[in-house]
Specification:
The protein is an all-alpha fold. About 65% of the residues lie in helices and about 0% in strands. It has helices at about 1-15, 25-55, 85-100, 115-120, 130-140, 145-160, 165-180, 185-190, 200-220, 220-235, 240-250. Helix 8 runs antiparallel to helix 9 and helix 9 (about 200-220) packs antiparallel against helix 10 (about 220-235). About 35% of the residues are buried.
Length: about 250
């Protein structure tokens, strides 16, 4: 009898935390499951695959090095990087499909603040799900699907407007994706709108300097590229830091 009661209680709790419901408990539960039951595995695979790609890539020192090995995907004559990020993409898609909370919560009675009204307009209520979208975009990028990555980052920047750091990061990744495609006009349209006060953490600062350095390199404006590349090197590590230092010497 005790076992039956325990199982029944567990099942009841599980269904009460369904993504089809939206309350404080379901939001916490779905965020927890997304982070530790799905995202963690995809993120671990992403980091391991990226490190292996950067370490094993054989750069062609007879020409100007790429800012990152994956950019060789846009130049079939160059040595091609190894590694597949498909598993990370699948994990991100699974999180989005199974753990998204789009149902709006019940409105509180009485007078509502402007902040509360804005909260009710959100398109997503799983507080961790933006990480899955960003992982999918990054995985697409490092798979060489630059156009697909740009589309994912554009959607993310519009879908999570209440998360300013996520919006800025998505915009910078979108610009990086365009730059990898040599779409320099589209790259410029994004990066010129990013202000210094938006670069609130090292991740954003690294991306910003990386994109600007690559943008100016592709414009053959090495004098302007060098200061950004020097700053990008400060945030890099391992084989990627060595690669960027050699590129700096070439410039």
């Amino acid at each position: 009898i005790l076992l039956f009661v325990t199982v029944t209680t567990f099942i009841t709790a599980l269904f009460s935390c369904s993504p089809k419901k939206n309350n404080a408990a379901t939001r916490r539960y779905q965020a927890f499951i997304t982070k530790y039951n799905i995202y963690y595995n995809g993120d671990t695979h992403f980091k391991e695959t990226l490190k292996e790609m950067e370490n094993k890539y054989e750069d062609d020192y007879s020409q100007l090095l790429f800012m990152h090995p994956i950019e060789a995907k846009n130049n079939p004559k160059s040595p091609q990087p190894s590694g597949s990020f498909d598993r990370s993409i699948e994990k991100a898609q699974k999180a989005i499909q199974l753990r998204s909370i789009t149902k709006r919560p019940k409105k509180k009675s009485g007078k509502q603040s402007a902040e509360y009204k804005e909260w009710l307009k959100r398109e997503e209520y799983n507080p961790f799900l933006h990480n899955a979208w960003m992982m999918m975009g990054r995985s697409q990028f490092f798979n060489g699907d630059f156009l697909g990555a740009a589309s994912t980052f554009f959607y993310t920047s519009k879908h999570f407007r209440w998360l300013p750091e996520t919006v800025t990061e998505a915009q910078l990744w979108q610009a990086r994706s365009y730059c990898a495609l040599d779409w320099l006009f589209e790259t410029e349209n994004i990066i010129i709108k990013i202000k210094d006060e938006q670069l609130t953490n090292n991740t954003l600062k690294e991306l910003y300097n990386n994109v600007y350095a690559n943008y100016y390199i592709k414009l053959n404006d090495y004098d302007k590229a060098i200061p950004y590349l020097q700053k990008a090197i400060d945030y890099a590590d391992g084989s990627q830091k060595t690669r960027l230092r050699f590129l700096l010497g070439q410039l």
